[in-house]
Request: fold
Amino acid sequence: MSTLIHCDNLSKRFGSKTALANVSFSLQQGDVAALIGPNGAGKTTLFSILCGYLRADSGSVSLLGHKPGSSALCGLLAALPQDAQFDPAFSIGEQLDFYGRLQGLSHKAAKLETDRVLALVELSAQRKHKAAALSHGMRKRAAIAQAFIGSPRLVLLDEPTAGLDPAHALQIRQLISQLSSQLGSQVSFMISSHNIFELEQLCNKVLYLQQGQLSSPADNKDSDGAEQYLTLLLEQQADQPLLALLQQLPGLISVRPGQKNQLLLSYNSDQQPQFDLELLQCLAAHGYRYRNLIKGQTLEQKLFSAS
Amino acid sequence: MPHLITLLRHTGLYAGFELRRLWQTRSGLMTLAATLVIWGLLFRYAIVPAADLIASRGFTDFISGLFGHNGISQLRSWPAPELAVYWFFSLWLLPLLSLFFTANQLCPDIERGTARFLTLRSSRSSLVLGRFAGQLVVQGCLILLTLLATLAVASWRAGGMTPAMLSAALVIWLNLLLVVAPFTAIMALFSALVRSAKLAVSLAIISLGLGFALLSWFIFYFPDFLFLFSYVPGAQVIQLLPLHGWQTFKLAALPLWQTALLLGLACLLLRRKAL
Reply:
């Protein structure tokens, strides 16, 4: 697999504030990477450097073997920049046609491509509308549509579902998921979001930024050798008798409470490969009802397990 | 070489998009309307009565005062008085109008974030050059419209159009494009620097005014540097007025290199600017 993004000791300061401090990571072809972090962690700064909108103070970045902002990346790198707006003087369709033309498409091909990407985000009927005539969510979807013009190899999406209603947020998640599975290794995504649930569904790699530092570049995998995890959501809060019962299950390493009615269990899969079945039988035998059982930890638990 | 071809292709696309902005958008049509109002007044009070104006004592005294007797005789050498008056007023008016009409080349896109969409698909230099070329094409269209109207008035008065009139109109059109080019390039530079068209216009007026004042002060104490005045944008205008016909192109080099220098600075500035 080839490396699509390679960042080495990337740093950026705004006055006395450090936005990024020695950030290093790489993204492989076909990866769908999540960029997570609290407000002000440096996510948008990192995106802006990758897109060539900002220059890093130090360190090096390469995308598909080129420097950010290089003409060689035109058409290969697509992005949804945060807060970028369309030109209010022209219709959305005219602007997407123009973007297609800039990407090297013929006049006719650009129009067809505009039709295709607008259909992807369910905005075909709004082709002739100007940005001012669209709602915030529609404008966001039109901005997402521009990121899918042509055949980009790397798509950077900064908060793609922020401001969208649940139905369209789901549609965008499905679109990303569908494209990443359809195109496989031909296209890679990097997505920043506050919605951990969303990123968990879409991404196989997690970059966690905190105060400008990348603290846990980790694969979004659910196992660590023989130690496996289960996340159990009960219908009622776990009581002491239940915890005592669970402690007796063969193979259990630890059990600790998560959020409301949630328990996080770790077990040794070599010792007890059918631990999940044992757990469910134990719950049924003692009359405990559960709402769901997730294999592995949630991304939230992985990132914030200390809290 | 492929980079140059891509740069030229993108520049052409941006220029074409700006031309569409003139004819197909509300803001473009407003620019067109403003131009028509200004030139309508000029037509009514200067170009239609051009023959009388050139013959009038006040106008000839004014021209003679500025350029000597040679100035008025050169102005009378144009094949039609309407073209002479059009030439005189355009040379004064267009640089100023250019500052106002081309102030929004880059700043609205940078401020709105549209430049982020664009620079993912083209280089920043092609954005600067394309917007500049677009504004020049737009101004070329507006100048052509008013020039055609002037030619129509001149032919109507003279009872027909002569080849000399057409040749003079072509000379005027090309010269006016050369005159507005450095001012359009100044606005490319300032619109890359500030956040709004109003600020860009203010900055241009202040910079040009202050630059001229400082240069005057400097030359007052060091008169040997008087030649520096000839490098100020628009410096050739005063030399162009008493000229006519193809001889006007002997002054073409100055605006061309001024434009190239200013566009180079604008490209450099935008390349280093955070979007």
Q: What stands out?
A: Residues 124-158 of chain B form the longest helix (35 residues). The mean pLDDT of chain B is 89. The radius of gyration of chain B is 20 Å.
